[in-house]
């Protein structure tokens, strides 16, 4: 059933591409509704698949010989972690379509690239064959480029090319590892399970682990290779930045967990010597994650562009995911997966408010200019939406961010208390930058610009797709925050199985 | 050998030559006064028919080979058969994409294409130094003429002269190398030469190395490997579009098939020596095992491969002409393939054939699109692709698929070809060098995405300057769509083509 999320999205993309492009035959409204229906159907399938998979372990969905001579299988399967992320993808897809309801330029092409990207993302989360996973991972790169380059804003061609090249460089690293692992395992299987049971030599794992983690980590915003993320997020159209932050960065983190950590667990073993207190690849990446948390938060604190604040906050929040992965204990990994979901929802929400509700109406994202617009009076819905999303993102109990980050911090305390302490500073700075942006953009005391009350400067009212999208994402965060067991019941057994399977 | 055997085995070549003469006669005798489009159409249809007959002849010949006095002249079956079928199909596609604008003499053009293709058929199967040389010259001289075919264009003439001078030099080197090999081995048969090379390697005769370098110069020129690639950008730029497509695809397939034939012949006696040495090395401590032990042949090819990958990709970054860009990307692709020739195996041979056939197919399509755009805008600079998605959405979609395939993006066939090739190299190559070179190639294929995206960016992203629609001839459009469909289908179901190629080899 879950496999149909992939096929449906690609079929939707093809259908959008075949709709009449321009002239009298073109119907942007039709393109929008088709995209919404496809996204909704995918979301419904994801929910149904999630409900059906409750309490189950790993389930194989499809297993067909793809290239029999080389032992490559078209192997789709899902465990608790995959199901949670598929659910997130469905949610992000629906919200993304709702928040791009006002795309009027080359509408059907926009949704064609959008749905192709979604299809690739579903595919990555459901692949249990390294080769297949890599194929879907690369499929997701090209639509991102075109979404940003065609429909973006601020320096879009630069940002799109930077994003594409960073992604492709990362995937070149992963390709090298794929080839080496395939050859070392005797050139007869690429399935993740088969490779992890092949007994890959420790010296191979020692270099393959960091290379894979780095390759996937680029897309997860691993410091110092995160620089594509803020520029990419800022230049992207609203729906694309929602997807970039919401699900594409999760592809990277998921690859780190599913491929780097499960195939090469010995790569995380101690080197046997330590330098500045760092004695294994595991502590290298944990330290990089902690630096990312703190660095992203501090940089977000001084941004003048509203969207850059959110862009850097994504780097900071993704640091929690990577830190959680490197704790290598049950609660830390639970927290990491939960944080993937939580950040996917909340970053999507924040980008939607900044990009769609504010920027599309005010045509500026400069905090200095927004200060003079008295947005809390003129756009009360956006202001209060940002209050809710902001407090959720800074980790107020009752929302998903709190449960996730708390678990990551507890997990990292048992691994190394210094990591927790530094990451805790990052949370405090997180409150500061959210508060600063909130205050400057919406609740400023600055005198209003003189032309504000003239005729023709009224801001358009909030439309129904925006309100629906906000309700969808806000509710998701609230439900998970109030009753985290709804996801943890799926995540915990899957993480336990991974840890018991030798990854420690 | 008797003449019946000779005729039976060379039936495909004979069919092509007969078709070439038929095209000339029909064009000169009956169609002198006809319109240019009609002449081109008739010539192309006759040429395609000739390819079809030749294809039938290849199939019916099966794995029959030709020997003279116990020495193999032309091999049958295996790589030779696959490459011959590829050459014929790609030639037919080139003929179907001919446009009528560039020449007054379509009949001659088609005839020369067919004759050059028959040269390609000969070298794909050749097992003897003299046959190799004769086939290479038949192919090369045809290519010089094709390059110069746009008689009103100075660029075309310049490109042809450059191509001819480089070609003549490298043919001389090749022949000189062959003469040394003959002197060493006392035979022109590849297998006996390889046997003699093993003994000469054992006794340390330096002549063998001299001959090796000279042969590499001659063959490196044919596949445009660095540093013998200098003709490629000028030729790709100056030649008429169909001639450039022919050089980029058919000539490449034939040349690599020749390299596979030579590598297979050499590997046979060398494999034993190499195996013994490698066994000794593997049991003599960690350092030699890590560094591995490489044959001189491997070292030379690996150097050429690394240089081609690096210079091809980096030079392509700086190009503004799409044809020159394709030329440098061809240099880079040749570099990837040379890696698999350096660490050669039967699986490697299959993966090279897979790579070169799909690469040839994609390149013909790419030159088809370039040709159409060139006719509409008068130039092949990147900026002439501006707004292609508005001027002709189908053409832009074809360009998107073909260029992404060249860049190696899944699920298109270029990705699978690359993966298969690199996997074959790693499956054979022991030691650290093959792995380092594969890393190098993977890193540079990430670089290559940049220049392919530069063209696609103009087609899809940048503002439209001239929105006038571009019209495409229906036949051209159908052929381009068929090529695109093949690229997508072979990419999604890679086993189809792979099993087909493996089917030509005797079961292992």
Give a short synopsis of this structure.
Chain A has 504 residues and is mainly alpha-helical.
List its salient traits.
heterodimer, A: 504 residues, mainly alpha, two-stranded antiparallel ribbon, 21 helices, 4 strands, 5% strand, B: 508 residues, 2 strands, 1% strand
Structural write-up:
The complex is a heterodimer of chains A (504) and B (508). Chain A is mainly α. Chain A contains 21 helices and four strands. The radius of gyration of chain A is 22 Å and the shape is globular. The two termini of chain A are 32 Å apart. The model of chain A has no long low-confidence stretch (mean pLDDT 85). By secondary structure, chain B is an all-alpha fold. Chain B has one domain (3-502). Chain B has a two-stranded antiparallel ribbon with strand order 1-2. The relative contact order of chain B is 0.09. Classes of the chains: A mainly alpha (504), B mainly alpha (508). At the A-B interface, helix 5, helix 6 and helix 7 of A face helix 17, helix 18, helix 19 and helix 21 of B.
The number of strands of chain A is: 4
Mean pLDDT of chain A: 85
Mean pLDDT of chain B: 85
Task: Choose one word for the global shape of chain B.
Answer: globular
| Alpha-carbon distance between the two ends of chain B | 29 Å
How many domain modules of chain B?
A: 1
Helical residue percent band of chain A: over 70%
Report the β-strand fraction of chain B as a percent range: under 5%
For the report, how would you describe the main beta sheet of chain A? 2 strands, antiparallel
Which pair of protein chains has the largest interface, and what are the residue counts?
Answer: A-B, 36 and 34 residues
- Rg of chain A (C-alpha, Å): 22 Å
User: Which geometry of chain A do the CA atoms define?
Assistant: globular
**What's the number of domains of chain A?**
1
**What's the arrangement of strands in the largest beta sheet of chain B?**
1-2
Low-confidence stretches of chain A: none
H/E element string of chain B?
Answer: HHHEEHHHHHHHHHHHHHHHHHH
Q: Which structural class best describes the helix and strand composition of chain A? A: mainly alpha
Overall radius of gyration of chain B: 22 Å
How many separate helices of chain A? Answer: 21
The strand line-up of the biggest sheet of chain A is 1-2
